[in-house]
C-alpha cells in the first residue's frame, strides 16, 4: 500500500489558491499527488473517479450549476455515500475506501486554504465485514487453465494467441498476481534458472514469487513460439512480457477480458483475475502453508489483509463437517 501523502500547502498549487470551483481544486490536487507524492497512475485514476462521482452527485443536486467546494457540505457528502449503496449497490468496504479518498482530498483542500472546514471530518466510517472472496476448486482451476485451445480455423501463419493466454493464466495462478502486476511483467523479470518472477505491486514494491513446471513450460512455449511473432518492426513493447495481436503491451482491461472469455469457455461464472489470486492464496493455506509466507507471496503490507483467506478455509471446513459428520 502507498503511504498517505503529507497534506500541506505546496508551491505547485499556489496559482489556484483560494479558488472555490470544485473541478479546479480536483485538478490541482491530482497534480499534487502526481508530482509531489509520486503516486502511481492506477492510484491517481482511482482518486479521479471517486472525486468525479462526488462532483456529479453535487452537480445533479445543483440543477446543473457548476459545483463549488463549499457545495460539498456534510449533508451532501453523506447523501452521496448513501447513493453509492442504494443506487449502485457498492459493498461496505468499497464505500469505506471511497470515503477515505474524499477525506484525503478535503484535508488537502483545507490545508491549501480552499475550505474553512473539512465536510468529512465527522462522518463515521461505514461498518465493514469480511466478505469471503470467490475461490475456484482444484477441478475448476484445471478447467480454466485448460480453456485456451487452438481453434479449428486457426491460421498456421499467424501467432497462436491461445499459447499466450495459457501462459498468462498459468502464471497468474502460480504466482497470485494481480491483473496490473501481470500487465506490467517484463521478459527480463522471468528468472527460469531460479524459477521465480519479479512482480511489482502497489507502491512499486517488488517481490520474488516462485512458479512450478506447468507455468515454466507454458511460458517457455509462449516465448519461443508466440511472442517473437507478435513483435513488430516498430515495436513499442518496451520489453513487456504479454503482447497483443498488434504487438502492443496487454493492458489490465485486456487481461480481464481474456480471463472472462476463458472462464466462459470453461463453463465458469463470476471469474475475474482476482479470483485466481484468491484461489492461489486459499490453495496454499489449505495445503498447510504458513500465513506469513502467503503474505509475502501476495505482497500484502499487513498480515490482517491476508487473514481473510483463513476465513475461506474455515468456511470449507464447516461445509465438510455439515456434509459428513453424523450430527453435523
Describe it for me?
The chain has 328 residues and is mainly alpha-helical. It has helices at 22-35, 41-61, 74-86, 92-112, 138-145, 161-175, 179-184, 213-230, 252-265, 273-286, 291-298, 303-306, 308-324, and strands at 190-191, 196-200, 206-210. It folds into two domains: 11-112, no CATH class; 138-324, hpI Integrase, Chain A (Orthogonal Bundle), CATH 1.10.443.10. It is 53% helix and 4% strand. A three-stranded antiparallel beta sheet has the order 1-2-3. The longest helix has 21 residues, at 41-61. The protein is globular and about 60 Å long. The model is unreliable at 6-19 (pLDDT under 50).
Indicate the topology.
Blueprint lengths: L21 H14 L5 H21 L12 H13 L5 H21 L25 H8 L15 H15 L3 H6 L5 E2 L4 E5 L5 E5 L2 H18 L21 H14 L7 H14 L4 H8 L4 H4 L1 H17 L4
Antiparallel strand pairs: 1-2, 2-3
Helix pairs in contact: 1-2, 6-8, 6-10, 10-13
Structure characteristics:
single chain, 328 residues, mainly alpha, hpI Integrase, Chain A, 2 domains, 3-stranded antiparallel β-sheet, 13 helices, 3 strands
Query: Roughly how many Å apart are the termini?
Result: 41 Å
CATH fold call of the largest domain? hpI Integrase, Chain A
* Number of separate domains: 2
Q: Give the overall shape, derived from the CA principal axes.
A: globular
As a whole number of angstroms, the C-alpha radius of gyration is 23 Å
CATH architecture of the largest domain: Orthogonal Bundle
